[in-house]
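WARN retry 2 of 3 for item q-0093 after timeout on previous attempt; input resubmitted unchanged.
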Amino acid sequence: MLLLHTETKNAHIMVLNYIWIAFFLIAFLMALGKLVIFGDTSVFPAIIDSTFASSKTAFEISLGLTGVLSLWLGIMRIGEKGGVVAIIARWLSPLFCRLFPDIPKGHPVTGTIFMNISANMLGLDNAATPMGLKAMEQLQEMNRQKDTATNPMIMFLVLNTSGLTIIPISIMVYRAQMGAAQPTDVFIPLLLATFFSTLAGIICVSLYQRINLLNRTLLLALGGASVVVAAIIWGFGRLSQTQIDVVSTSAANIILFLIIIAFIIAGIRRKINVYDAFIEGAKDGFQTAVRIIPYLVAILVAIGVFRASGAMDMLISGIEWLVAVCGGDTDFVGALPTALMKPLSGSGARGLMVDAMNTYGPDSFVGRLACIFQGSTDTTFYILAVYFGSVGIKHTRHAVSCGLLADLAGVLAAIFIAYFFFA
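OK item q-0093 returned
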C-alpha cells in the first residue's frame, strides 16, 4: 500500500513537473519574441530580477508563517486528542448512512470515512490522508471488480475533492502574512463557496448512483444546511457594504475563538494535558513552515518568470476579452489562474493565490477571490490519483466528471459570493 501511495504521489509530482517546466519555457519563448520582434531589451533583465524578488518573497512568507502555523496546528492537536473529530463523526452518522447505501450497516469502513471527512473539515490534513487511504482499502475489500471504482468509493472521493472545510486556517494565515487588514474577512464567503461545491458534488453523484435525495434524513440535512446558507446570504443582503465587512469579520473572529475555546474544553473533559498537546502540534507547525520553503520558492519563482515575460498578462487579457465579448464583468479574471490550477496542484494554486495577493494586494477584490478559489475545492486529480492508485483502481467511472462538476460549482459560487461580499 505504501509503495502504491508513493507511486501515485510521484505521478502527481510529474504533473506539477510539467507545469513548472511549462512556466519557464513559455516565459522564455514569450521574452524571445518580444526581444526579436519588438526589440524589447528590458524583458530578460525583468525576468532575472523577478527570480530574486520571488525567491525572497517565498522565504519571507515561509518565515512569517512559522508562528501562526505553530499556533493553529497546536490548537488542532488539542481538538484531535480531545475527541472533537470523533464527536463530529457521530453527528454525521445518520447522513452518511444514506449517502453510502451500498455499505453494510455497522461495517468498520463507516467509522473510517467519518473520521476522514471530519478531519478534512477541521483542516487536519495529516490525519485525513492516512484515514482516507485506510477507508479506500476497506472499501476495496468489498469490491468484486478490483480494478473498477464502486459507488461508495466515488461518493467518498467526491466528498474529498469538493473540499468541504469549516476551518480554512492556512488561507487566513497566508492573508495575515501578506499584510491583509482583516485576514479573516474571507472566512464566511469561503464557507459558503465550499458548501455549494460539496452540495453540487453530492447531487451529481446521487443522480449517477440513483440515491434518493428525497429521503427524510438527506432532506433534513442538506435542506437544513441550504436554509442556513440562504439565511446568511439573505441577512447579508440587507446590509450595506460597510456593515457586511464589519459583521462578516466579527462573526469570523468570534467563530474562530469559540472553536479554540471548544477544543480546549474538549481536551479538559478528556483529561488530557492540553498544554502538552498544544506543544506537540506546535512542533509540527514549525516543521511544516520549514518544509514548505523550497516548494514556495519553486512555484513563486516560476510564476514570477511567467508574469515578468508578459505571458500571464496575455493569458489574463485573453480570458478578459472573451468574458467582455460575452457581456460579463471582468474584475474576477485576475484571480482565475488560481481556480484553473487548483484541480491539478494544491501547491501550484497556493503559489498563484500568493502571487495574486502580492500583485493586486491582499485586500483587493482579486486577492480575496483568489483566496476563496483556493479554499472552495480541493486538488481533484491528486486525490483521485492517490486514493484510487492506493488500491489499484483503473476504471474510475463517473468519479472524474462528478469531481470536476463539483469544482466548477465551487468556482462559480466563489465568483458570485465574492461579488456579493467585496465588490
